Amino acid sequence: MYLLFFFFWVMLNGKLTLEIALFGIAISALMYVFICRFAGYSVQKDFMIVRKLPLIIQYCVVLFVEIVKANLVMVKYLLSPHIMAEPALIRFRTDLKTPTARVLLANSITLTPGTITVEMADGEYTVHCYDKSMGEGIEDSVFVRLLRRLEA
Question: CA–CA separation, 12 vs 2, rounded Å?
């Protein structure tokens, strides 16, 4: 997080000189101490994020691929008037433990065209699908499997 603060400082200044770098180091350190003290952040969280960075990147790539695939499916539905969609509301439960993982799953489902997370409560999701085939296997989707690995 400290490095993010420093890079943000340099980006806001638009150039890197010795003076800007020294002020950036000091201000970034103050900001880091502030979030550690008042926002419940810690150095251990930084190390955990760095350790899980490959999984985070993999999740982002999978999300992008799923969005592209869902867009192609939606184009097929929209350009083929003889294919009739059967909208459906699907309810399913997950065993994701952290609120962050649960929200990430809900947002990933909503970001994927053709599906919208309508409700999320206590690990139970209600998802509206443009066609019922879009909801098949959603309870054990690639998103859920990757989020389980991120939680571990």
Answer: 15
What ranges in the chain are assigned the alpha helix state H? Answer: 2-13, 18-38, 43-51, 53-79, 99-111, 142-151
Q: Give the chain's domain count.
A: 2
DSSP state of 130: S
Helix or strand holding residue 118 (H, E): strand 115-121
* Domain enclosing residue 17, as ranges: 2-47
The string of pLDDT tens digits covering residues 50-94 is: 899 999 999 999 999 999 999 999 999 989 888 888 999 999 999
**Degrees to nearest 5, angle at CA 26 with 35 and 47:** 45
* 3-state SS assignment for residue 114: coil
Separation CA 99–CA 110 (nearest Å): 17
